[in-house]
Design goal:
2 domains; Reverse transcriptase RNase H-like domain-containing protein; nucleotidyltransferase; hydrolase activity; 5 strands; hydrolase
Length: 192
């Protein structure tokens, strides 16, 4: 319900109805349940998980503490109409570029692990035929990262956030358990 309320074409003040208020209260409650966000420790390696779907981009920044992976923050955004026409590898590379840009203050200056479910991104440095990918790769040169491929079925963290724009927020339906499992600890958080 927030997306329609905060459309760019709609001038302030924004009207908030009971549906928005209920969703906001649920969001606040979800943030207080497992997995609770951890404060970043700049002495530990960061793990950046990215994903792209037909409708959006998602990223999760996490760190391993005592053998367990803990989220530091979540990112998500919808794809612009022109971006929806990109090839799959371009969407996946865009997710990496966007997440690195957004998280540059966390990631610059120290090596980090980039986890993706798109195996072709491991070969990004060798791709010379696609100028868009080449430009994006050049913007990633200041970052020191190692790419690790993770099978899509095990890449639920970033995958969930890349699909947020595709969820029907109009009311409970068969997708509600998937939404809950992505936000709560029951089945949504899978460590590396």
């Amino acid at each position: 319900p927030f997306d329609g309320t905060l459309d760019e074409g709609q001038p302030p003040p924004y009207s908030v109805d009971s549906e928005c208020e209920d969703a906001f209260q649920e969001l606040k409650a979800s943030l207080c349940r497992e997995p609770v966000l951890y404060s970043p420790d700049f002495h530990r390696e960061f793990i950046l998980q990215t994903d792209a779907s037909e409708v959006g981009l998602g990223a999760v920044l996490s760190q391993e503490v005592d053998g367990e992976e803990h989220p530091v923050l979540y990112l998500s955004r919808k794809l612009f109409p022109c971006e929806r026409n990109y090839a799959v590898i371009e969407k996946e590379a865009l997710a990496v570029k966007w997440a690195c840009d957004a998280l540059r203050y966390y990631l610059l200056g120290a090596p980090f692990l980039l986890v993706t479910n798109h195996a072709a991104l491991q070969w990004l440095p060798k791709m010379k035929n696609n100028m868009r990918l080449t430009r994006w790769y050049r913007t990633l040169l200041p970052y020191a990262f190692t790419v690790r491929h993770r099978a899509g079925k095990d890449h639920v963290n970033a995958d969930f956030f890349s699909r947020l724009g595709d969820l029907d927020w109009s009311g409970p339906d068969e997708r509600e358990p998937a939404l809950r499992s992505g936000v709560c600890s029951e089945a949504g958080w899978r460590p590396t």
